[in-house]
Amino acid sequence: MKKTKQMIVGSLSALLLLSGCAGGGDSKPAASGANGGAAAPSAAKEAPKEAAKPAEAPKSDVTLTISRWAGPHADDQAELLKEFEKETGIKVKMDAIDFGQLKPKQTLNMSGKTGQYDLIWAQESWIGEYVKSGFLTPLDDLVKEAGSKYDAADLNPSAIKAFTVDNKLYGLPNFEQMPLLVYNKEMLQAEGLQPPQTWDDTLKVAKQFFDKGTGIGIPGKQGSASVSIFTILKRTNGSDYFNASGKLDLATPANIETMQFWKTLASYSMKGSTTWWWDEVTKALQFGQIPLGITQSGLFSQLEDPTKSKVAGKLGYAPLPYKKSPAGLINVWSWCLPQDSKHPKEAFQLAAWLTSKETEKKMSLKNASHISLRQSLFNDQELVSKAPWLPAVGAALKDGITSPLQPNAPKLVEALGNGMSSIITSGADPKEILERVQQDLASQF
Description:
CATH superfamily of the largest domain: Periplasmic binding protein-like II
Number of domains: 2
Region (Disordered): 25-58
Structural class: alpha/beta
Oligomer: single chain
Signal peptide: 1-24
Keywords: Signal
Protein name: Sugar ABC transporter substrate-binding protein
């Protein structure tokens, strides 16, 4: 037994000795131990592992065709879609066309059940018509299946409501356009003025600058712009276009008061701005000609581009002036799933990807004019450094309101736009204007 143990110990010693000598060509002498002796032999080196093979890209024979309007925003989105294709193997074809042809082409294809489009980009004002015509698939079950990974609770509730018909969701909101009050911080500070918030604040600031030769800039000529502003202003005063029964109800005391504020504000506007559009207001701000103005978010990037603007970095952004509390306009584009989509599962997968927090942030970093409906991004510091208007958009959308969505809404917008123009150009009485529009259109609502 003793001899056997000696043999085992001798064999182990020999193995350890061999291990210590096997250095893979390393001829360095062994290091000394703590007591000056030879260091303990090192453990045998592991054989090199095979490099992990890169994961194969997903493969799919599905090609999705999506419909949206053309332009720089579409070009930026097309670049991001390459990531989706790489991640999923699904190909995406974008049919990007002129805005004026977008709705007619979508309607033509969905009514004919051609199956041409797997996903369409639509405004909130189109949804009622599309749903009534049976063009769209409800998304509630698909969103529920996506679960917490999609985080639908992060989407702005007012935007979700705008795409909900008969308690069913028909669109994932993707892109907001918002009128805001923009002010030159240096010009206000020079006058000892604080950024205005309420109606009274704004009238005070506008009058002080008007008396010195400038004033506020407003898009007075653009009827739809004026109506968008009125839609927000009346909301801040707790009023609406319709009564509790859903009937048109324009000439209420609160609506008259709101329209009177519009008239007074216009009286303190920069000379000539009653004939301006959004673009002219933006240019006047851009070149430091006015201290404050009301303009549209799609143009804000021009204000912050130092190669184009004299006031980049000097501007502040706020919700439109309010009487009781701030409000904002829901003017949103959303991804919707046509009933005749050939690939509904993959189409929803794409819609969820496009409206995910990660993709939305990438889109906003690529194009600062892209305003997501992800509430968590309104105060994302990386985005705010490029788009300083985002916190104001978030504050306004805490109480979001759409323009009228009824089928005859375009007639109402046109009539109100003409009336608002006459109020600020010829001094028409706000009460009489609202009563006249009410009388002319009440039977159509």
